[in-house]
Amino acid sequence: xxxxxxxxxxxxxxxxxxxxxxxxxxxxxxxxxxxxxxxxxxxxxxxxxxxxxxxxxxxxxxxxxxxxxxxxxxxxxxxxxxxxxxxxxxxxxxxxxxxxxxxxxxxxxxxxxxxxxxxxxxxxxxxxxxxxxxxxxxxxxxxxxxxxxxxxxxxxxxxxxxxxxxxxxxxxxxxxxxxxxxxxxxxxxxxxxxxxxxxxxxxxxxxxxxxxxxxxxxxxxxxxxxxxxxxxxxxxxxxxxxxxxxxxxxxxxxxxxxxxxxxxxxxxxxxxxxxxxxxxxxxxxxxxxxxxxxxxxxxxxxxxxxxxxxxxxxxxxxxxxxxxxxxxxxxxxxxxxxxxxxxxxxxxxxxxxxxxxxxxxxxxxxxxxxxxxxxxxxxxxxxxxxxxxxxxxxxxxxxxxxxxxxxxxxxxxxxxxxxxxxxxxxxxxxxxxxxxxxxxxxxxxxxxxxxxxxxxxxxxxxxxxxxxxxxxxxxx
Length: 476
Ligand SMILES: Nc1nc2c(ncn2[C@@H]2O[C@H](COP(=O)(O)OP(=O)(O)OP(=O)(O)O)[C@@H](O)[C@H]2O)c(=O)[nH]1
Ligand SMILES: [Mg+2]
Prior knowledge:
single chain, 9-stranded mixed beta sheet, 11 strands, about 10% strand
């Protein structure tokens, strides 16, 4: 029986026995899309990134009371907003869309609202729900505490998310502390097995010069070699969410503003693009177009404007659709989507099972047979064995050579759950090649497992790795 089938059965039994509503909710959640939270410090670009991922202007990115409330964006038949109140009630709320962004009329003080749910008809939200969280200013403010409480499994309370995208701007001590606060045994939510890092607002690195994204790539690589950070958040992808969002929603009139700038003599173009202030200023002979320029500056940022003008001048793009494609390509959003799909969507079963078992722990007495059954599932399901091992590898607690640990991380699904991910093969690898690689991996882990000088923990890990290889061989 599959892991999730086991978990469903257990939830049904636990609910029948306890009638605890939290278990009924957890049971429903197993068949709902994976829940992925976007978290990070104030103004890290969380809402903008969410919009880029969905490909629609949805989450408000300016100040406003709703940016201080955890907001879920989920697929639904029509646009609709529900406010879930702290007193347990839920109510539909009216909303407006101001330049796309959903502005919600709360009708009450924000602190009475636990979270908001925005339904959006969107194929991009079908396999996962995205959750915009309020920025973490410092570790002590109210809003920060609310976000942390939401993301973390707090004492007896199970976390509400299955995975986290964590935005880092420039590496900061408090980011590491924040990530470290997701401690745990590898099975509580928020540990590095289900976190992907984003170096956000990447286009601003190094003063928005045209090579900003390359510079950001180098910074992200450096993060990936930072021992402390890697344990917490093993993958860090540079993303310019603003470019991604603009790429998805660029309008013809915006293209025309940029094309008009590009058509000016070179010396004027250079002058205009020198700084954001210069570009937005209404002085001189370009005064009349200043409002349009301010609008595109807000939408694309200085880097996006510079890039667009160059692409238009060099005749690489000729219309809004061309430019939109280029902005998307430069934003890094496709790469994030790829990693996100591999790491989260591809492993959604085990991530959901983990969340569900945490709810059972929360709702049933520790000595009951239900708790024992939850423990049995955790101990015996190979998916959980892999997750625990992955956590051990990443927290530096498994002895082994760098090469062994890197291969193990991959084999356990650290780069994605598909067989080709696990074996480090290209996506188009034919079954015969996958089988060959799996056999080779099986033999090499068998050797590690039987080697008299291998540490005991490594031998145990090797046996689990063999089991993974056998699993792959059974299905190719
Ligand atoms: N240049 C640039 N600016 C960005 C990017 N992402 C966001 N911004 C800008 O940064 C500001 C904050 O963006 P938000 O998306 O609202 O950030 P947030 O993390 O949701 O902010 P809070 O919810 O208030 O904590 C806005 O002015 C955005 O336009 C980016 O990738 N590049
Ligand atoms: Mg926000």
